[in-house]
TrEMBL record:
Biased composition (Polar residues): 27-36
The name this protein goes by in its record: Uncharacterized protein (TIGR00156 family)
UniProt keyword annotations, A-Z: Signal
Lineage of the organism: Bacteria, Pseudomonadati, Pseudomonadota, Betaproteobacteria, Burkholderiales
Superkingdom of this protein's organism: Bacteria
UniProt key word Heme: no
Residues of the signal peptide: 1-23
Sequence segments annotated as region (Disordered): 27-46
SUPFAM superfamilies xrefs: Hypothetical protein YgiW
């Protein structure tokens, strides 16, 4: 019984250690109103989805429209919400942890390209990110 309990305790410690290691592999390192880090990978190849500015998207975008944005993630607003900025304005973006480039930290100084879908509703307007790539 003691050996079984020790094996169980070791498994719990390993599982908790793995969770902490995953949680510590943050990809966004800029300003944040939350202490939840991000992690994981992305697609960074060519796309036929149109490149737009934040202003164009807010002024003429349709709900569920696919678009690409280029600019900077300037703050983490908590959970999977961030503020994205280009030369024309700012928009709230939703980025799941696994959308950040694997093994790369991103902060407010890095330029990124976001590929995703515009979510235009009565109460909220945001951009849901499907893919993210660092720009040179």
């Amino acid at each position: 019984m003691h050996k079984a309990l020790s094996a169980f305790a070791a498994a719990v410690v390993l599982a908790l250690g793995a969770s902490v290691a995953i949680a510590q592999s943050a990809s966004y390192t800029g300003p944040s109103s939350s202490n939840k880090p991000a992690a994981a990978g992305t697609y960074s190849g060519p796309s036929a989805v149109p490149l737009m500015t934040v202003k164009q998207l807010l002024d003429t975008g349709r709900d569920d429209q696919h678009a690409r944005l280029q600019g900077r993630i300037v703050s983490h607003n908590g959970g999977d919400r961030y503020t994205f900025e280009d030369a024309t304005g700012r928009i709230t973006v939703e980025i799941d942890d696994d959308r950040f480039p694997a093994g790369q930290s991103i902060n407010a100084e890095h330029r990124v390209e976001l590929l995703g879908e515009f979510d235009k509703g009565i109460r909220k307007t945001e951009f849901e990110v499907d893919r993210m790539a660092l720009l040179p």
